Amino acid sequence: xxxxxxxxxxxxxxxxxxxxxxxxxxxxxxxxxxxxxxxxxxxxxxxxxxxxxxxxxxxxxxxxxxxxxxxxxxxxxxxxxxxxxxxxxxxxxx
Length: 94
Prior knowledge:
With 94 residues, this protein is α+β, with helices and mostly antiparallel strands. It is built from 3 helices and 6 strands, in the order ααββαββββ.
């Protein structure tokens, strides 16, 4: 939760704590968290556009496996990530 406290200035939206998809007005931004790529929901606004943060819709976030099987998109506390399963090369796509 500390991660989201920084992003949302301690006003963490309920969809994150309830592990639901974000409402309109939010998009996803790819972040490297301890060497793993995840997509975190951020509020869409002109500031994020000015910073060059790409706005990605939930439906556009996918996972693909190029070797093996598995690689399923999952969600935890609002963040999207790929669970590799038996896949040896699992990729988060936006």
